[in-house]
Amino acid sequence: MEAGRPIPYFWRPFERGMWRNGTGVVIGVLLWSAVAGQNSQPRSPLYPEKLHADIDLIRATLLAAHPMPHRYLDSAALAARFDELKASIRVPMDPESFQALLVPVFQAIGDRGCAPQLPVAVERDLREHRRVLPLRVRIIGDGMYVEEELKGFRSLQPGSRLIAIDGVPVDSLIARMTALYVTDGHNRTLALRMIEKDLPWDLQRVMGSRSSHLVRYQQADGTVAEQVLFPMTGTEIARTRKPSGAPLQPWRASWEAEASTMWLTLRTLDQDSLTLAGQHADRFLRSLKKDMVENKAKALVIDVRGAGGGDVDLAEQVFALIAQQPYRALGGVVMRTRELDPELRPYIGGLTAMDAASIGLTGLGNGTFGLNDRDERARWKDPDPQVFTGKVYIVADGLTRDAAASLVALVKRSGRGKFVGEETGSNAFCWSGSEPVVLTAPNSGVRVTIPVLMNVLEGSPNGPLDRGEQPQHGIEQRPAAIAQGRDTVRESLLELLREILH
Fold it and tell me: What is the dihedral of CA 70, 74, 78, 83, to 10 degrees?
């Protein structure tokens, strides 16, 4: 932390040495009732004592592995949340209901990368065999708009505003579906974009199965109408969907001559995804730089809407195109646990041994580890004398996460460009990275992902510390353009650039 600056609440545990392992305290007696069922399929219903054992195992693993479990709740408050959860379970329940009860506790922890997920068999049943409302939607402002019907029909005109489904107002449904998701702190945009992706299955979880759905909606001309839609399974939806053409490359660029602008689209910052697509970041960026020089580009737009991936070095490679001062994406990496208790190993996948030295971390005291000054990830990079010096904009949305969100912060905080769009899906102070511990609760089958590293961004956000990076210019898709498939965020920004550059 910088000298003279107040220490944020979530950083104080590092200063006071309050981070403590919760494993080994009662693990032996907590697991005896779970061992017999660890290799069997989840059963329904499950008795409270079985679910209580799962809760204690989840809590012990979380406290052992997570780098910042008390960021928003101190140890007493977090313990009280788990105790209240156990006390609330007095009757048998199925694994799906149990997972839903776990979500609020993890929402209080406030790490998107640390969340309970449905058992594998339940998730497969939900996605493939349950009958769901076949709609794809866009959530714009406080409204939900039809993008398309997934069964290929056009019972509802694209762009229509949904008012209610089966008599339940849409705003109430959005609130109920938002509660299914764990986000970073009090971020809301990620949950809304996830609802857009998973509306059929989210609706099924909050409303249950129906033989038909009555949809009340408002058409573009203001007329209010109702339509009965019949549900389909995910397997049936997949069969009715027609291929939409060849897939686009994850990294691509287009020249917008009228605006003298190069539009760079990055849909991932994951090196493996680029490799699978046959793309090489260094070659792509060299070619892009050459094209910008030849076209005498006056502006560069970096579009990272929907982009995830944990490769921060890719973010820095992209930023090198425009950097005019020394830069780095991360201010630090935090890890807290070397190795999980051996008694936990039968229940976890992913990492079990976490050797700080092997991943370049050094002891910081109080049982924590971080980057040393010689680590490449902590080193300040010098700008290239031949960088692009024109105007820069970066466009992001609620699905912009992890390394892509770090790129947004780097562009904005360096003052090198303007951030346009909406709040990013990753926290503006830090985001969890690395391969996680994946705990499978032996009785319920609920899976819990627990990251072991936290990436701390360079610089300070100018917005709330429990939210994503905040845009300097908020631009949303316009509902009227949904029917035409137009990207009005892109249109608006290019129109602005045409005006200011010519």
Answer: 150
Instruction: Tell me, yes or no, whether 3 lies in a domain.
Output: no
465 is a domain residue: yes
Q: What is the side-by-side strand order in the sheet with 251-256?
A: 251-256, 261-266, 299-303, 391-396, 418-421, 473-474
Same domain, 232 and 142: yes
Burial of 388 (0-12, 13-18, 19+ CB in 10 A): buried
CB of 437 closer than 8 Å to CB of 66: no
Q: What is the mean pLDDT of the chain?
A: 86
CA–CA distance, 402 with 427 (Å, rounded to integer): 9
Cβ-count burial 97-120 (b if 16+ within 10 Å, e if not):
ebbbbbbebbbebbbbbbbbbbbe
CA distance from start to end of the chain: 45
Last residue of a domain, one of 79, 112, 145: 112
- Is residue 343 located within the same domain as residue 444? yes
Determine the Cα–Cα distance for residues 319 and 413; give it in Å rounded to an integer. Answer: 12
Q: Is 70 exceeded by the pLDDT of residue 387?
A: yes
- What tokens appear for 228 in the block? 């009965």
pLDDT score recorded for residue 193: 97
Q: What is the pLDDT of residues 354-370, one digit of tens each?
A: 554 555 566 666 666 66
What is the β-pairing status of strands 473-474 and 418-421?
Answer: parallel
Same domain, residue pair 405 and 450: yes
Which burial class, exposed, middle or buried, applies to 311 when counting CB atoms under 10 A from its CB (0-12, 13-18, 19+)? buried
23 and 136 together in one domain: no
Q: Is residue 119 part of a domain?
A: no
DSSP state, residue 496? H
Q: How far apart are CA 204 and CA 237, in angstroms?
A: 15
Q: Which domain holds residue 68?
A: 14-112
- Mean pLDDT value of segment 450-478: 92
CATH classification of the domain holding 193? 2.30.42.10
Stated pTM of the model: 0.86
How many domains does one find in the chain? 3
**Boundary residue ending a domain (177, 207, 240):** 240
pLDDT at 85 over 50: yes
Residues 6+ apart with CB under 8 A from 24: 341, 343
The CATH number of residue 310's host domain is 3.90.226.10
> How far is Cα 174 from Cα 137, in angstroms, rounded to an integer?
12
* Ranges 20-34, 63-77, 200-214, 337-351: which has the least confidence: 20-34
Asked whether residue 70 is domain-assigned, the answer is yes
Same structural domain for residues 342 and 285? Answer: yes
Please check whether residue 407 is in contact with residue 424, taking contact to mean a CB–CB distance below 8 angstroms. Answer: no
Q: Taking every pair of C-alpha atoms in the chain, what is the biggest distance, in angstroms?
A: 73
